[in-house]
Design a protein that fits this description.
Helix content is 35%, strand content 20%. With 345 residues, the protein is an alpha+beta fold. The mean pLDDT is 94. Bound molecules: adenosine-5'-diphosphate and magnesium ion.
């Protein structure tokens, strides 16, 4: 028997439906229960699509999953897949140490070091918080003056994980494009007073500053997701008059738009990363070489429902709709057999 975190969002509904269809014995658990470890005594594995937007998950998911993994209890996401999730600092060191083709990323823990870097770097450059998604914490910095302001703030009062003004701008943009109802704008206004809890539990981002080389002339980024020996991908277009794609809501499922070099690079990278499921976000540099800007085990599965097929590890196209959540369960079950953790009861 396997355990699945009892939730109606993310990957959970498809995991549950798949186990029901396939007759895979499972039980639903609340991973946030005090006695969760005890509750898992009679199961062989746990699946939990924890989210960086849920305050409780943010506090508890990484430690709980790491504790379970410690003695080899099979979980999704496992340590290699999970420890760097929603942490761009962690990803910088991980991708550098594996010599993977990440866009050059700079991290400083001392304002003097950051300022001396900023005096001689090329502009524009990109500033990011280590946390955040949907481009909400990513901005272009045009000159030294802008970089200095960011550096002083990073080592002063710091940045909130929620930026109400940027969020309102984004809501208006999404409303204008028919991707959000007008109520979303009202909510955005209320958010000036009530920050979302996920931002308040995390505290402010301070004591470090993260910059990334700007890779110009990308009308989109390319998100390739690798699960085992399969990959699928979408093209995410940047917002109008902007360089940021993530969260724009404009994307294409057309496989012909995906450079094979991105698929090749994603498969190669995952051979080193050994992740169960990794989304690689690529931009193309001036030589049209794919460069990784970010990795993440979690993604919004709805955005991929219309993918007409996937690629195998030989980069051969395999036509046909699929449900990536099923592959996650299959891989975990296979793992149980391979590691001798016995077949699921
Ligand atoms: N170094 C960069 N050069 C060019 N574009 C970038 C760079 N970093 C990010 N972007 C663009 O900004 C978007 C958001 O950046 P990302 O680091 O993926 O943040 P998030 O975690 O919010 O998705 C990306 O989808 C990409 O389009
Ligand atoms: Mg991203």
């Amino acid at each position: 028997m396997i355990a699945i975190h009892n939730s109606k969002s993310g990957f959970h509904p498809a995991w549950i439906a798949y186990c029901q269809e396939q007759g895979i014995p499972f039980k639903l658990v609340n991973c946030l229960d005090d006695d969760i470890i005890g509750q898992l005594k009679d199961v062989r594995a746990l699946l939990w699509h924890h989210s960086h937007m849920l305050p409780k998950d943010l506090i508890a998911a990484k430690p709980i999953l790491a504790a379970l993994s410690h003695q080899g209890f099979p979980v999704f996401p496992d340590c290699r897949t999970n420890w760097h999730f929603d942490d761009k600092l962690a990803q910088k060191y991980l991708l550098e140490s594996l010599e993977l083709p990440m866009v050059k990323t700079f991290a400083f823990y001392d304002p003097k070091d950051a300022l001396s870097w900023a005096r001689q770097t090329k502009y524009p450059t990109v500033h990011k918080l280590k946390t955040g998604s949907g481009s909400s914490q990513v901005r272009l910095v045009g000159n030294y003056h802008g970089a200095k302001k960011i550096i002083l703030k990073s080592f002063g009062k710091g940045f909130s994980n929620y930026a109400p003004f940027n969020s309102l701008k984004e809501r208006i943009y999404q409303f204008k494009n028919g991707h959000a109802p007008w109520m979303s704008i009202v909510k955005g206004l209320l958010r000036f007073v009530h920050y979302p809890e996920y931002a308040t539990v995390q505290g402010r981002e301070r004591g470090y500053v993260l910059f990334q080389e700007f890779v110009p002339n990308n009308p989109s980024d390319i998100r390739v997701i690798v699960i085992g020996n399969k990959a699928f991908a979408i093209t995410r277009w940047v917002r109008k008059d902007d360089f940021r794609a993530s969260g724009s809501g404009h994307f294409s499922h057309d496989p012909d738009l995906i450079p094979l070099s991105c698929l090749e690079s994603a498969f190669k990278a995952n051979q080193k990363l050994k992740g169960q499921c990794i989304a690689f976000d690529f931009v193309m540099d001036e030589k049209q070489t794919p460069r990784i800007i970010e990795i993440s085990y979690g993604f919004s599965p709805e955005a991929f429902r219309h993918c007409p097929g996937h690629w195998d590890q030989h980069l051969h196209w395999q036509e046909g709709r699929f449900v990536p959540e099923h592959w996650m369960v299959e891989a975990l079950l296979k793992d149980l057999v391979v590691t001798g953790a016995s077949d699921p009861k």
